[in-house]
Amino acid sequence: MAVCTVHTAQSLNSPSSISHLGFSHQIKHQVFFYRRSSGASSRGSRSLMVQCSAGDTVVIGLAADSGCGKSTFMRRLTSVFGGAAEPPKGGNPDSNTLISDTTTVICLDDYHSLDRTGRKEKGVTALDPRANNFDLMYEQVKAIKEGKAVDKPIYNHVTGLLDPPELIQPPKILVIEGLHPMFDQRVRDLLDFSIYLDISNEVKFAWKIQRDMAERGHSLESIKASIEARKPDFDAYIDPQKQYADAVIEVLPTQLIPDDNEGKVLRVRLIMKEGVKHFKPVYLFDEGSTISWIPCGRKLTCSYPGIKFAYGPESYFGHEVSVLEMDGQFDRLDELIYVESHLSNLSAKFYGEVTQQMLKHSDFPGSNNGTGLFQTIVGLKIRDLYEQIAAEKSSAPLEATKA
Amino acid sequence: MATITGVNLPVVPKGVGLTSEPSSRPLALKASSLSCPWKRPIKVASSRKMRSVVVAAAPDRIEKVAESIKEAEEACAGGATSGECAAAWDEVEELSAAASHAKERKKESDPLETFCKDNPETDECRTYDN
């Protein structure tokens, strides 16, 4: 939302009032009102200035290999802010963009410079930076951040072609989701917060099997070959983005069940960078210490394989990080609320908000394990970050007038 | 290695969605026309025609995936450069993802909900909150 502050240019005898006006995010200009003072004209005219700072879009980057916009993470995130995110009405039905009241999610596949046939001809995967137009990505994200609407191209996943552009209005929160949000240095500098979803190879394989084995044409070998063929490009271009992310959600096979390869029970680690502005990492019991916690016991009964938490400081690619880890599954509501009551710095607005959000989307995949829990927590953290930035921006012009 | 338990690999004929066709159809039908009923000379009400058209989109997507897998296997088997091989499998991945997303979306759509989203004031969609 663009916050407009009204202040008088000169302070005179007559009292002036400072009031806040809220405008929709579509207003991008400065509005000047002039009012002549009623009464003695010797005092001269006072000018009333209304300044709308519309360039306060918060930009979040999400690096994920799982396709665009429809991913569970996006749905959880937009739900934390309220409102359901939907494709733009009346536009291209194959648009990848999702729009809700506060958030707009842009799929970075829209910045492919080569369409499917082009990539096949050149022998280049979508993971390769040569298939993406980073200059356009940077220009448009910068423009949206400054409060200008842009004409963003559409990559049609159904046909594999680049469709005519659609107009994107600057929202309060812009999320750019895709394979390369942190690849280009300039785009990286525009991000207020970045997240990397790191799925380990075993889990990726298990998930792909679940997804593709029901399809005709796929076999175990073809799924394996598909993962293997993409691996070199993935390791070279996508994986290195991990080191730039402010938060990494790492999904690994469970350690609670020996030799488990179904990928149903997961060990999820939330790696949070220390020292990031407006972001305080979640912790368990005592910040900065190393904790290992199994909540199941006398007060809480869990079914097999149970739940295990760990928390501690670590070093990740040369950065100081705090890692919160969960292994296992939630079976009942009271397990979830019990765990939530012991976590600190969640940035929840009320006790039980995390549980409530998880319950709201209990049909989403990952709602009973660390993936859903940490995605929800990151969503709350982003909301907190947004509110802090918005508060900062609105107090800045007030400070200027007081001087 | 992953254990696959209870996974059904359905082997379905091409005309899978059209099982709703009435059984009173004359049995003297050729096998080929059974699989592509929309090509059959139809002297039925237009509603049946519409039903057959709607289903045609779904097998298309699955066909695309199966085709792309075949192409990818050929591209890699023929000793092609690793770039082409990778690009072919990348396409398979993209198409499989699109197919599974489409299936998910179709599963989620409740006709009443989609209608009410656009017309909340109609009698069927009114909600009372007290």
UniProtKB/TrEMBL annotation, chain A:
Enzyme Commission numbers on file: 2.7.1.19
PROSITE patterns with a match to the protein in the record: PHOSPHORIBULOKINASE (PS00567)
GO BP, one annotated term: reductive pentose-phosphate cycle
Pathway: Carbohydrate biosynthesis; Calvin cycle
Main location: plastid
UniProt subcellular location: Plastid, Chloroplast
SUPFAM superfamilies xrefs: P-loop containing nucleoside triphosphate hydrolases
Domain of life: Eukaryota
Catalytic activity annotation: D-ribulose 5-phosphate + ATP = D-ribulose 1,5-bisphosphate + ADP + H(+)
One GO term describing the cellular component: chloroplast
Record-annotated Phosphoribulokinase/uridine kinase domain positions: 59-257
UniProt keywords, alphabetically: ATP-binding, Calvin cycle, Chloroplast, Disulfide bond, Kinase, Nucleotide-binding, Photosynthesis, Plastid, Transferase, Transit peptide
Broadest EC class assigned to this enzyme: transferase
CDD domains assigned: PRK (cd02026)
NCBIfam families reported in the protein's UniProt record: PRK07429.1
Family the UniProt entry places it in: Belongs to the phosphoribulokinase family.
Protein known as: Phosphoribulokinase
Organism field: Punica granatum
UniProtKB/TrEMBL annotation, chain B:
Listed Basic and acidic residues bias regions: 101-130
Region (Disordered) residue spans: 98-130
Disulfide bond listed as a keyword: yes
Pfam family name, one: CP12
GO CC term, one of those recorded: chloroplast
Superkingdom of source: Eukaryota
Keywords attached to this entry: Disulfide bond
Spans through the membrane: none
InterPro entries cross-referenced by the UniProt entry: CP12-like, CP12_dom
Disulfide linkage: 76-85, 116-125
The keyword Disulfide bond appears for this protein: yes
Annotated CP12 domain residues: 63-130
Gene Ontology biological process terms, A to Z: negative regulation of reductive pentose-phosphate cycle
Protein name (record): CP12 domain-containing protein
Organism field: Punica granatum
